[in-house]
């Protein structure tokens, strides 16, 4: 499987300048290649392919000193990028979607370049080197790459906080784990996820939290004269604000998914209609929660760890009693599940999470509920997780 490791770079001043000029050269190459394709089609109805253009690149490199100053693999990657833009365009045309012809890129909309094969570039003791870059660029090694990771390609990207590099590596996934610690998830807004065993992943609501500050910087930007120094500064402030929110959110999702994969081998969750939810009243919270991204993180982390993910039917997970199966209708405001048939009295989301686990047909199943009651001194108990103590289980007074 292919996993990507991203690192922040610590370029020197000279390297920073080199980065900017390489990026600009690649943008121009991209635009020139696009122009050539358009011209060839207009004049002679010929489609210029990636192969044609790499041949032309080779010829150009033979005649132009400046072109030779950069590794050929780097320039080929830029041409490949255009090729992919065309392929996606043709695919969309075939499928009758909105076509979107590849565009010329302005300075603001071209922020990366890279190597499609890991050749012409080397990495040694947390430093990257390639032709055209003065010296070796220091990587900020916040986490090691696994020893068995073979680097396939890499991309340099300019972001709000500076340059970063992503290495796409191929990694052998683990063998399927033999233990069967199973858990069901109920994804929500109040709590990000409630686990069927009473655990909890709290909500972050990164955007909600940053709302006031975002509004402030956006207002300040709106007041400034377009193009002025103050406007540029305010624009950076807005970008920083969004960037920070995005990083906080992504960090939260990574930590949550990693924790689940550390503690469980089988994870069941509901098939969610995220698009439908994202149109509703809670749209902003749904977007902030990013369940879709969370699930895709779970997928690749599960593959890597040899764990199993099970998607279950979400129909009536809230209404059904997780102990006896009786239907207990609830409104959105009802926070607890109280079953008139078997007397189960638990938090509403916990009841859903257990239903999810039951439907997955794995793990301890129904008898788990009794154990659960036993843990709290033989009484049926209510789940009362808080952000300070996510796994608190409390017995309710009779
Ligand atoms: Zn019941």
Description:
With 398 residues, the chain is of the alpha+beta class. It has eleven helices and 16 strands. It has helices at residues 13-44, 50-63, 65-68, 72-94, 206-223, 229-263, 274-277, 283-289, 291-305, 348-360, 368-375; strands at residues 2-10, 112-115, 121-124, 127-130, 137-140, 150-159, 162-170, 182-187, 191-195, 200-202, 266-270, 308-312, 336-338, 345-347, 381-383, 393-395. Strands 2-6-7-1-5-4-3 form a seven-stranded antiparallel sheet. The longest helix is centred in the middle third of the chain and has 35 residues, at 229-263. The model is unreliable at 363-398 (pLDDT under 50). The chain binds zinc ion. Zinc ion binds at residues 321, 323-324, 326, 339, 341-342, 344.
